[in-house]
Design a protein that fits this description.
The protein has 273 residues and is an alpha+beta fold. The chain is built from 7 helices and 7 strands, in the order ααβααββαββααββ. The protein has helices at residues 2-61, 68-99, 112-122, 124-129, 150-166, 214-219, 226-236; strands at residues 107-111, 133-137, 145-149, 173-181, 185-192, 241-246, 250-258. The protein binds adenosine-5'-diphosphate (ADP). It comes from Mesonia oceanica.
Amino acid sequence: QQVTTDMATLTREVEKFAEGKKLEIEALKIRENYRKEFMGNVSHELKTPLFTVQGYILTLIDGAIKDKKVRDKYLNRASKGLDRLIYIVKDLDMITKLEAGELHLREEEFDIIEVIQNVFDLFEMKSAKKNISLTFDLDYEEPIYIYADKEKIQQVITNLVVNSIKYGKIGGTTEVSIEDLIKNKVIVRITDNGEGIEQKNIPRLFERFYRVDKSGSRKEGGSGLGLAIVKHILEAHNEKIYVESDFGVGSEFSFTLEKSKQRAPVQTSTAKT
Ligand code: ADP
């Protein structure tokens, strides 16, 4: 009797062990597939701009360098291709670190309005090229203090504003608005009247390397990582990103942020030393 029980226990233990190993192998397979898929995507993303730059340089070597006008044009294009490569590599670096949980948040108190203004200043030229106006819809002028990683939240707003310009119509608008919610939160909305997104494409929008219109995105210098980065950064803050879009009419991306509980202490002349 004793032996039978022991055998049964042993069998259960062996089965449990085998099940554990099976799960481990499954996990390894998933990780390996993920790695392969990621590497495949990376080389695919890098190939196009690399070949473009190589093409211009080879043409220059082949003689085009002798014609000043052609030389300047090709050097300019090669330089733009390199800018694109740098942009893609930076995004790749960011997504790799975010997915591996290696980008730690440096939370601090800051004024979200100032961050939005920074983003507008940085992309004024880009929006002017498409005659897109960047507008700010605020109920009042006061600063709104947020407690979060300032640099990463600026990255989130940058990616969303840049997309609204990239996929915006010529002469369109991008509007950023902030709604002060009760419960210590604000909601930031980035609204455009651009090309919009078909409903069926919305569920995949935040996947890395996913694009609705591949050639359109590449032409605009996209890496296909912008929204995946946005999602990861907000998730790291325990916040979510929402999207509503009407195809041909425009899109609205929105997310919440936590207001700072404690305002920075005001320096007064009577403060004790
Ligand atoms: P990309 O580098 O291609 O812009 P993103 O991850 O930022 O990558 O966006 C993924 C895709 O979502 C884009 O390729 C585009 O098709 C679509 N998209 C993102 N933002 C907008 C927008 N404001 N209007 C229309 N389409 C958008």
